[in-house]
Design brief:
The chain is an alpha/beta fold. The protein contains four helices and six strands.
Length: about 120
C-alpha cells in the first residue's frame, strides 16, 4: 500500500542518475518488504509513513499533497530525510560520476531503521 501512496520522482530516462536512482528505489522496496513482513525490529509501515507525512495512516479522504520521494546525491551519508510539510521523503543516492556504490542491504537497512524508528518533531 505504501508503494502506491509514495510516488518516486526519477530523473530523465536513460541518464546515469536515473540508473542509480532505480537501484536505490529497488533497495527501498526490498526494505519495505522486510518491514511489512515484520523482520525489522521497531519499524512498521506506519512508522515509515509517519516519517514522511506526520500521519501513521492514510487519511480517509487521502492526502491533500500527494506523498512523494526524491533522490538527492550524497557522498557520505545515506540517512533518509523528510519534509513533512510537503510530504516528501528524500532517499540519498550515490553520485553516478564518482563510482560510489550503494552500501550492501544489511548496512543500508540499518541506516533506514535508524531513521524510521526514531521519533521526530515530537510525534511519538
Amino acid at each position: 500500500m505504501l508503494t502506491t501512496i509514495l510516488k518516486p520522482q526519477f530523473s530523465s530516462e536513460g541518464s546515469n542518475k536515473n540508473t542509480v536512482e532505480k537501484k536505490v528505489y529497488a533497495a527501498f522496496l526490498r526494505y519495505l518488504r522486510e518491514v511489512a513482513s515484520g523482520r525489522r525490529d521497531h519499524v512498521s509501515v506506519g512508522s515509515v509513513l509517519q516519517f514522511v507525512t506526520g500521519a501513521d495512516e492514510e487519511p480517509v479522504l487521502g492526502f491533500k499533497i500527494a506523498p512523494s520521494f526524491h533522490f538527492p546525491e550524497v557522498q557520505i551519508s545515506f540517512l533518509p530525510t523528510a519534509n513533512t510539510c510537503i510530504n516528501c521523503l528524500q532517499l540519498p543516492c550515490p553520485q553516478p560520476t564518482l563510482d560510489a556504490n550503494l552500501p550492501e542491504d544489511s548496512k543500508l537497512f540499518e541506516i533506514y531503521d535508524y531513521a524510521f524508528a526514531n521519533s521526530y518533531y515530537g510525534l511519538r
